[in-house]
Amino acid sequence: MTITQLQYLIAVAEHQNFTIAAEKSFVTQPTLSMQISKLEEELNVKIFDRGTKPIKLTEVGTKIVEQARKVVIEAERMQDIVSIEKGFIGGPYRLGIISTVMPTLLPMFLSTFVKRYPKVNLIIRELTTDEILTGLREGKLDAAIAATPLETSDLIERPLYYEPFVGYLPEGHRLNDKTELKAEDLDLEEVLLLQDGHCFRDNILNLCDMNLNNRDKKFTIESGSFETLVQLSDERMGMTLLPYLHTLGLKENQKKGLKHFEKPEPAREISLIYSKSELKIQITEALREVIFGVIRGAISFHDVQIISPKQKERFR
Questions:
Q1: pLDDT surpasses 70 at 255
Q2: Residues 6+ apart with CB under 8 A from 291
Q3: What residue numbers bound the domain in which 186 lies?
Q4: In terms of CB atoms within 10 Å, which of 17, 39, 90, 235 comes out highest?
């Protein structure tokens, strides 16, 4: 049994196809198939049911793949130990970022990080929170940036910053005369939301302490883009809530529609998340340091109330 065989095994399990797995592993399909067959012979079990399309893991195969992932991760950790001992910060680093953070945070730190650590090959993917959790647990990601807390016991969550929610109101809105917003001012009937699957949407629902059942509205719009929600609000189709960093990119005339909450402001916690195995921890620490450096002057770290994307809790 070799590490290479285990890597091939994981590739086939992920892609459910020998040909695609071989392409992703940069080997020929016969070579990959032969190595998998050798592994099955050595273990004296069938790992894959080849009679189905796509191919599926057998019951024991599922358990073997889970163990294979652990073995491969530990093997990679040996290289980490050597890199840390030599003070080397480099190599591939796979980072997942949720879509409501990617457009604002990434431009703030990417250039600085790349210049400071040119030997790191940063591979960045925009993913949902669920995709991030799966990727971290299966070893497909080295770290991620997402809204927390996520109530996970198998991952480490290290807060990077706390990002307040800011109201965006159209002209003539009933709340325009208020100096500051309160949570109880919000009426979910008129709040334009991101579509289901975005954790910022869950933040807002928790802030309002309401759900979407039995709503009596003339129309329902749920978008995947803050830009769309802002444009709809400009057309007086409702108000919306934005994460603070997103408001920095608004046009000057649009910033007149912003309305902050009274302190402590409702906010989301944005964290760097990674496995407890702490693979590539030297790169993770470098990334965290760079983000801290660029974010410190852009956002407040005080007088906020964290609204969890997972727990149902009322902001008070």
A1: yes
A2: 105, 108, 109, 160, 161, 272
A3: 165-262
A4: 39
Q: What are phi and psi of 258, to 5 degrees?
A: -80, 140
- How far CA 77 is from CA of 14, 70, 143, 145, 289, in Å, comes to 22, 11, 15, 22, 22
Provide the β-strand partners of residue 192.
240
8: CATH: 1.10.10.10
Do 44 and 183 share a domain, yes or no?
Answer: no
Classify residue 131 by burial, with Cβ atoms within 10 Å: 0-12, 13-18, 19+: middle
Residue with tokens 């012979």: 41
Q: Which helix (H) or strand (E) element contains residue 37?
A: helix 29-43
Q: Do 298 and 108 form a contact (C-beta atoms < 8 A)?
A: yes
Tell whether 235 and 98 lie within a shared domain.
no
In tens, the pLDDT along 127-172 reads 999 999 999 988 889 999 999 988 888 899 999 999 998 988 888 8
Spatial separation of the C-alpha atoms in residues 32 and 15, rounded to whole Å: 13
In a domain, 314, yes or no: no
Domain membership of residue 316 (yes or no) is no
How many Cβ atoms sit within 10 Å of the Cβ of residue 49? 12
Q: Is residue 311 a part of any domain in this protein?
A: no
User: Contacts from 36-42 at CB under 8 Å and sequence distance 24+?
Assistant: 36/5, 36/8, 36/9, 36/12, 38/5, 39/1, 39/5, 39/6, 39/9, 42/1
Domain assignment of residue 315, yes or no: no
